[in-house]
Specification:
heterodimer, A: 289 residues, alpha+beta, Uridine Diphospho-n-acetylenolpyruvylglucosamine Reductase, domain 2, Uridine Diphospho-n-acetylenolpyruvylglucosamine Reductase, domain 3, Enolase-like, domain 1, 3 domains, 5-stranded antiparallel beta sheet, 4-stranded antiparallel beta sheet, 10 helices, B: 163 residues, Ubiquitin-like (UB roll), DNA polymerase, domain 1, 5 helices, 15% strand, globular
Chain lengths: 289, 163
């Protein structure tokens, strides 16, 4: 057996789960899909004393779309959202197809992926781009953590050790908006070397409404390209302006170099992907989102 | 401390006590002697341990045995018909040289079972995308793709007869 020994609890209610986490003294971990946690246990990168398995909690497996928000409960598998998205959200269908492989997506949860906070993972950048929130339940009750204050460092978030993320909420692109998503990886389903996601909308005057662009695999956390967004918002979307904004966005990144790619390569690819995703988003304005 | 679980594996129910840190892959191999489920990387990358959990493919190394309580599992031992023949997918891998050492094959066959159920007439591109979740270091994948195409044809319902 590869993981170090741990205690196992399978609570039947949210209060019981939060109580078990609080009783773990900071050494308890939540087990949902387990697709990131169990490898870390096997490699002994994580040695929790207690696993709180939330798979038997009721009411956490819902996908709800209401008033421009998409709420995903903590037990919604990535595959379930992918299937849901096929007929309802081309953006999410495209993103989910790039998250690992079907056997991983069948177990891995959307919320688990978001809170695991791997900087090269797709969904955290999508949450940031779509100005989402993480719904956290702890001993002191429930709180909403906006995506731009959630990610702190690789695998490190604002979620407390005694808090359980019960859902994430994405703000869906408004009617008339277009989206773009692209990543470069060694093989389909691998973590991205670099990736980008963009949402654009035209206003009535031939200029752009609020523009949104976020990168993954380009630093210690997902990164939102605020300066580039501001440079585009309210402007006429010419190819030159988009290229310039994409270059500026990539220049503002501080990617790491590693065995897979140098920092300079990641920055260069980021500029290309930013341009592609912004251009794709512009072309999709008015289409399905 | 151990936990009692009941699982149905290849149609047969088993009741066992397991340590929480035991993976489903180790449980199948060591407790149930079903060694057809292979373990390669043991952290979810290689796909060799893929089994069906309630008919959907999952990595048996990325699930704890205790989590399988109350679920239905199909391993490579449960794919072939009881009369000793081969399943059409296994038949296609055999006929098209879709394996060499065979270590990765059980996992690929399990994924293929679910994949062809969902996409009975897949494109080569779709087959390759599905295979990205499985490492094979012998074949170079070409014959595996051909085997899956052949399996899809074998599993397709016969064309309607012309009057």
């Amino acid at each position: 057996m590869k993981p170090a020994p741990f205690e196992y609890a399978a609570p039947r209610s949210l209060d019981e789960a939060v109580g078990a986490l609080a009783g773990g003294g900071g050494d308890a971990k939540v087990l949902a899909g387990g697709q990131s946690l169990i490898p870390m246990l096997a490699l002994r990168l994580a040695r929790p004393t207690l696993l709180v398995d939330i798979n038997r909690l009721p009411g956490l497996d819902g996908i709800r779309e209401a008033s421009g928000m998409l709420e995903i409960g903590a037990l919604v598998r990535q595959r379930a959202l992918e299937r849901w998205a096929v007929s309802r959200s081309p953006l999410f269908a495209e993103v989910l197809r790039h998250v690992a492989h079907p056997p991983i997506r069948n177990r891995g949860t959307v919320v688990g992926n978001v809170v695991h906070a791997d900087p090269a993972s797709e969904l955290p950048a999508v949450l940031l781009c779509l100005e989402g929130v993480v719904v956290a339940r702890g001993p002191r009750g429930e709180r909403m953590i906006p995506a731009d204050r959630f990610y702190r460092a690789p695998l490190t978030t604002a979620l407390g050790p005694d808090e359980l993320a019960t859902a994430v909420r994405f703000t869906l692109p408004p009617a008339g908006a277009g989206w773009g998503f692209a990543e470069v990886s060694r093989r389909h389903g691998d973590f991205a070397l670099v990736g980008a996601v963009a949402v654009l909308a035209r206003d009535g005057n031939g200029t752009l409404g609020p523009a949104r662009l976020a990168f993954f695999g380009a630093g210690g956390t997902p990164v939102r390209a605020t300066a580039a967004e501001q440079a585009l918002t309210g402007q006429a979307p010419t190819p030159e302006r988009i290229r310039e904004a994409a270059r500026a966005a990539a220049a503002g990144l501080s990617p790491d170099g590693d065995i897979h790619a140098t920092a300079a390569y990641r920055r260069r690819v980021a500029a290309t992907l930013a341009e592609r995703t912004l251009t794709a988003a512009l072309g999709r304005c008015g289409g399905p989102r | 401390m151990t936990h009692s679980i009941r699982v149905t594996v290849n149609g047969q129910e088993h009741a066992r006590a397991v340590e929480p840190r035991q993976t489903l892959a180790d449980f199948l191999r060591e407790d149930l002697d079903l060694t057809g489920t292979h373990v390669g990387c043991e952290h979810g990358v290689c796909g060799a341990c893929t089994v069906l959990l309630d008919d959907e493919p999952v990595r048996a190394c990325l699930m704890l045995a205790v989590q399988a309580d109350g679920h239905r599992i199909t391993t490579i031992e449960g794919v072939a018909p009881a009369d000793g023949g081969l399943h059409p997918i296994q038949e296609a891998f055999w006929a098209r040289h879709g394996l060499q050492c065979g270590y990765c094959t059980p996992g690929i066959v399990m994924s293929t079972c679910a994949f062809l159920r969902e996409r009975p007439q897949p494109s080569r591109e779709e087959i390759r995308e599905m295979l990205a979740g499985h490492l094979c270091r012998c074949t170079g994948y070409h014959f595996i793709v051909e085997a899956i195409e052949a399996a899809a044809r074998a599993l397709a319902p016969p064309p309607p007869r012309r009057p």
